[in-house]
Design a protein that fits this description.
alpha+beta, YojJ-like (1, 2 domains, 15% strand
């Protein structure tokens, strides 16, 4: 006679779904990053450990077992950047944040036209646009401006004759909040090997935060948008405006 099947409570189903949702979210979050390769490396090492135990090895399982003994600590050390970024995104909120772009605003149209005017003159620029995640830690060493965006102000800031042309221009909402911001350059990887300094800095911000970066190349005049670990080129001001409106939900 078969034993009675264990009863499944609603809370058990919710528990399983919650764990599955968290694991799925983690996999989506680290997709396309070096964390995936590291995770697979750890899984392979654990598989070798189990296989070595099964066939009767002694030394290898002892070494690997001691290494994996502090597995939680190992994960925290290896994935500290991803954990920090994930917790920051979990805490994103607009309750105490800066106002989003207005739905009927012409700001993105004016910005896109200005960017392509820079592209025509081969004036290099890096625009850092804040979304939900606060970027104060990146901009605190820049030059505070806090002025309403205008084409003339942007041109004067990125002009090679301007003392503020080095670094990124920081846009918060529809205002130019700061200039001359030196962004961290990520370590070289297959994704950044062919990029210049501005593009690598923009890629780093698109990897570490939810910011949107618009880069104008002074060598080619190409316009590239970086966001959410992706890069996309824009051929016209209208195309750039469409990309930005999609990213900012306007």
């Amino acid at each position: 006679m078969l034993g009675a099947l264990p009863s499944v409570r609603l809370v058990d189903v919710l528990d399983i779904l919650l764990v599955a949702f968290i694991l799925y979210g983690i996999l989506l979050f680290i997709r396309g990053t070096r964390a995936v390769e590291i995770l697979f490396g750890l899984l392979i090492l654990m598989g070798m450990f189990v296989l070595a135990k099964r066939v009767g090895m002694v030394t290898f399982p002892w070494v690997v077992g001691n290494f994996l003994g502090g597995f939680i600590v190992i994960l925290v050390v290896i994935f500290q950047s991803e954990i920090r970024r994930g917790l920051a995104r979990m805490g994103q909120t607009r309750i105490f944040g800066w106002p989003a772009l207005a739905a009927g605003s012409d700001f993105l149209e004016e910005l896109s036209l200005s960017v392509f005017r820079l592209a025509e003159s081969r004036t290099g620029a890096l625009l850092l646009m804040e979304r939900n995640m606060g970027l104060a830690e990146y901009v605190e060493h820049g030059r505070k401006i806090d002025a309403i965006f205008s084409r003339e102000l942007l041109f004067s800031l990125v002009s090679p004759q301007s003392p503020l042309h080095d670094g990124a221009i920081f846009l918060r909402g529809e205002r130019i909040a700061a200039a001359r911001i030196i962004l961290p350059i990520p370590a070289e990887s297959p994704a950044t090997r062919a990029m210049g300094t501005r593009h690598r800095a923009a890629w780093g911000m698109a990897t570490e935060t939810d910011a949107v970066c618009v880069v104008v190349s002074e060598e080619t005049g190409n316009v590239t948008v970086f966001s959410d670990r992706q890069m996309k080129g824009a051929e016209t001001a209208m195309e750039l405006e469409g990309i930005l409106r999609g990213l900012f939900g306007t």
